[in-house]
Design goal:
With 123 residues, the chain is an alpha/beta fold. It has one domain: Rossmann fold (3-Layer(aba) Sandwich), CATH 3.40.50.1000. The chain is built from 4 helices and 4 strands. The termini are far apart. The C terminus is likely disordered.
Length: 123
Amino acid sequence: MNNPTIYAVDFDGTLCENEWPKIGRPNIRLIEFLKAEQEKGAKIILWTMREDDLLDAAENWLFDKFDFMPDAVNDNLPSLKKAYGNNPRKVFANVYIDDHNAKYGVCTELPFSGIPGGVADGL
C-alpha cells in the first residue's frame, strides 16, 4: 500500500468507556476494526490527552489485552516527519476517531448548535 490510510484514534471514551483516570470497558468492535485495518496496511496513531504513567497504562492495556500496538502515539508517523522534514503539532491523519468529534458537514450546516459560541453565534 503506497499511501496507507492513517487513523488517529482517541483513548478515553473511544477505545474504551470514559472512566478517566481509570481505563473503562473496551470498545471491542473499534479495537478489532483498527487491528484489521492495520493488518491491511493502515497506520494507527493513538491520539489522547493521557500523559506519563496514564499514557503508559493505556498503551500497555492495548498491547497486553488485545495484542494491539499503534504505529505512533501522540505524534505524527515517522515516515511523514521524514518526508516533510518537520513535525507540526497537529497530528496528520485521514480519519480522526474521537468521542468529541463532529463531521465537517455537520459544522457547516446552519444553524449549528453543537458548540456554544460556534457558527450559530456568528463566530
